[in-house]
Amino acid sequence: MTAERFSERSRAERRRRYFRVALGVLVVAALGALAWMVWFSSVLAVRDVEVSGRTTLKQAQVLRVAQVPQGRPLARVDVGAIEQRVSGLDRVDTVEVGRSWPHTISISIVERKSVVWARVDGQIRGIDRNGIAFRSYGSPPKGLLEATIDVTDARDRLQTAESLASVVTLIGRKDPGLREQVESVTASSKDSIELKLTKGRTVVWGSRDDGGRKLQVLTPLLRLEASRYDVSAPDQPTTTP
């Protein structure tokens, strides 16, 4: 009986060992088939491209620049390269490209928005929050302030335009009443921003720093009769008759 039980246990152990080996082979084969299907077959290949978020850009324009490889396995599509190509469009602020399984590449765009407009080389150009003159207009766009940026160096001009756009955005968001009084903005550097108000008044704003504090100081200051209000140093504001 002892020999028979030993023999039976040995056979059972061999069967379990064979089962484990067979199961391992099946798992490896399944993983290999799955990897082949995802990375090399046409089962999960690109068939569609979805573009969202565009307002002025045409879908055909985005698709032409994106150059999404139709028929390539979705897992092997270089989404970073697509993002880089689409972000090269003048009107694109940000872009995010992703995979929507099983067959779709999604391109989500946020277009630039004009904050102010300025005359650049004889053209009316919209300037976005980053100071980039990204589009042209046939005539001054309604609802936007004219900006005069008296800076020749390209890098300094970009920084100045960005600071100016930041100030205009802040005023529009925090103090709509003041925004209605602003007729135009000027800057000769990123630290020399001025607001031209109604009734011939001027606000010397200075840099973009301490914007919230400058608004707090300017509100009561504007109640005083003056032609020039200086809040560039908000803790020491001054007025000029």
From TrEMBL:
A GO cellular component entry from the record: plasma membrane
Sequence ranges assigned to domain POTRA in this UniProt record: 44-112
Entry keywords, A to Z: Cell cycle, Cell division, Cell membrane, Membrane, Transmembrane, Transmembrane helix
Membrane is among the record's keywords: yes
InterPro entries per the UniProt record, alphabetical: Cell_div_FtsQ/DivIB_C, FtsQ_DivIB, POTRA, POTRA_FtsQ_type
Keyword Cell division attributed: yes
GO-annotated biological processes: cell division
Pfam families assigned: FtsQ_DivIB_C, POTRA_1
Residues passing through the membrane, by range: 21-40
Gene3D superfamilies reported for this sequence: membrane protein fhac
Localization (cell): Membrane
Protein known as: Cell division protein FtsQ
